[in-house]
């Protein structure tokens, strides 16, 4: 695999403009540094396989990034496993870096290789699902509502795929004027993940796009693995534009379904959920307008009947009716007040007359008028007992007609 070139000495490893290395020395040093990396376990996707009788050459690609490296092996157990693999299979391999000095190329010598099994893939997907849940990326409150009438729909799908036809045709049936901006990408294979991520980011950055549909038709579990790839799933979760995951059929549940703003069971279902049905919406509008019209007509009719009832009242037939009614009430009130006042005054007059008679009956003058007299001393004291009067004492006598002075004898 490498030339039998003599290894350069330590002194020759120091180079300068005046003392450059030879190509042989440089490639030898490069081989030395590369082989120091040792054995490494790597995971990737088989892209190319060129098996021969006692050796195979191929390429191992990254699961997401558009990167890869050449692989080869002469080991019988590896050759046996390679014969059972196909392009697109996900594998885990133990490789040792090797540098081909004659061609100046690096290749990985495969020491062991195995296909990643379905159970292992399911376990990895479940671990990723739990991690997404732990990070809160599947919470309902994170999901954005879809626009009722999207101005422009972004579609990520395979070129000329059934999924593309289903979305476009069903959308046009529901709304003939609907507009799409389509991004064609691989939907499986070693380049699918990176291309899908680029498409999501491009449409998300497009200010005209209101909603994005990520669509793929049905396939095997392995065919849909790219839609459970962590980088793809996180690209969907980080998308600022509302995004719909429409992958496979009803029973297919890739992880993009968990983090998307809406899950559609099929590409056709995505069209039904994203694009409004113009015919149905027009029917709803017509029904709403009819209901509004009936309510307005009913309200107007009720108001007209109310006005008609008001107009039949006497006050509208003769506006003075209400004045006459109020005048009659005032007249009756005035008569009542006058009667009650007069009656009150008469009662009070009778009471005063009675009290006056009582006062006169008790008056001393009335007694004097009957011939009685009141005798007082010159000091004004009342004389009621003749024994208390001395002979010759001057007294004052009050009669009905006046007073006179007398001398007691």
UniProtKB/TrEMBL annotation:
<keyword id="KW-0378">Hydrolase</keyword>
<dbReference type="GO" id="GO:0009318">
    <property type="term" value="C:exodeoxyribonuclease VII complex"/>
</dbReference>
<dbReference type="GO" id="GO:0003676">
    <property type="term" value="F:nucleic acid binding"/>
</dbReference>
<dbReference type="InterPro" id="IPR003753">
    <property type="entry name" value="Exonuc_VII_L"/>
</dbReference>
<dbReference type="GO" id="GO:0006308">
    <property type="term" value="P:DNA catabolic process"/>
</dbReference>
<dbReference type="GO" id="GO:0008855">
    <property type="term" value="F:exodeoxyribonuclease VII activity"/>
</dbReference>
<protein>
    <submittedName>
        <fullName>Unannotated protein</fullName>
    </submittedName>
</protein>
<feature type="domain" description="OB-fold nucleic acid binding">
    <location>
        <begin position="21"/>
        <end position="113"/>
    </location>
</feature>
<dbReference type="Pfam" id="PF02601">
    <property type="entry name" value="Exonuc_VII_L"/>
</dbReference>
<dbReference type="Pfam" id="PF13742">
    <property type="entry name" value="tRNA_anti_2"/>
</dbReference>
<keyword id="KW-0963">Cytoplasm</keyword>
<keyword id="KW-0540">Nuclease</keyword>
<dbReference type="InterPro" id="IPR020579">
    <property type="entry name" value="Exonuc_VII_lsu_C"/>
</dbReference>
<feature type="domain" description="Exonuclease VII large subunit C-terminal">
    <location>
        <begin position="329"/>
        <end position="406"/>
    </location>
</feature>
<feature type="domain" description="Exonuclease VII large subunit C-terminal">
    <location>
        <begin position="140"/>
        <end position="303"/>
    </location>
</feature>
<dbReference type="InterPro" id="IPR025824">
    <property type="entry name" value="OB-fold_nuc-bd_dom"/>
</dbReference>
<keyword id="KW-0269">Exonuclease</keyword>
């Amino acid at each position: 695999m490498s030339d039998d070139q003599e290894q350069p000495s330590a002194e020759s490893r120091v180079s300068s403009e005046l003392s450059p290395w030879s190509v042989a020395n440089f490639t030898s040093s490069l081989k030395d540094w590369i082989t120091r990396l040792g054995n490494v376990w790597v995971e990737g996707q088989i892209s190319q396989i060129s098996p021969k009788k006692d050796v195979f050459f191929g390429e191992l690609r990254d699961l997401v990034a558009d990167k890869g490296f050449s692989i080869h092996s002469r080991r019988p157990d590896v050759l046996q496993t390679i014969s059972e693999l196909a392009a697109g299979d996900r594998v885990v391999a133990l490789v040792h870096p090797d540098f081909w000095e004659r061609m100046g190329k690096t290749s990985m010598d495969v020491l062991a290789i195995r296909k990643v099994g379905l159970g292992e893939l399911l376990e990895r997907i479940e671990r990723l699902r739990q991690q997404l849940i732990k990070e809160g990326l599947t919470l309902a409150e994170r999901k954005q509502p879809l626009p009722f009438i999207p101005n422009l729909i972004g579609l990520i799908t395979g070129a000329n795929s059934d999924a593309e036809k289903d979305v476009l045709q069903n959308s046009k049936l529901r709304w003939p004027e609907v507009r799409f901006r389509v991004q064609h990408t691989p939907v499986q294979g070693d380049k699918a993940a990176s291309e899908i991520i680029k498409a999501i980011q491009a449409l998300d950055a497009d200010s005209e796009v209101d909603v994005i549909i990520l669509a793929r038709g049905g396939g095997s579990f392995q065919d849909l693995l790219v839609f459970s790839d962590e980088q793809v799933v996180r690209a969907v979760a980080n998308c600022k534009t509302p995004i719909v995951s429409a992958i496979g059929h009803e029973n297919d549940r890739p992880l993009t379904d968990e983090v998307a703003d809406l899950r559609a069971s099929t590409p056709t279902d995505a069209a039904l959920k994203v694009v409004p049905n113009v015919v149905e919406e027009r029917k709803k509008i017509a029904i709403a307008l009819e209901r509004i019209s009936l309510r307005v007509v009913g309200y107007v009719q009720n108001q007209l009947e109310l006005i008609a009832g008001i107009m039949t009242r006497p006050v509208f037939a003769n506006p003075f009716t209400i004045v006459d009614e109020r005048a009659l009430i005032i007249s009756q009130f005035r008569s009542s007040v006058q009667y009650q006042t007069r009656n009150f005054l008469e009662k009070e007059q009778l009471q005063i007359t009675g009290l006056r008679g009582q006062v006169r009956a008790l008056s001393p003058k009335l007694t004097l008028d009957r011939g009685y007299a009141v005798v007082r001393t010159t000091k004004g004291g009342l004389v009621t007992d003749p024994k208390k009067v001395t002979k010759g004492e001057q007294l004052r006598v009050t009669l009905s007609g006046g007073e006179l002075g007398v001398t007691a004898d």
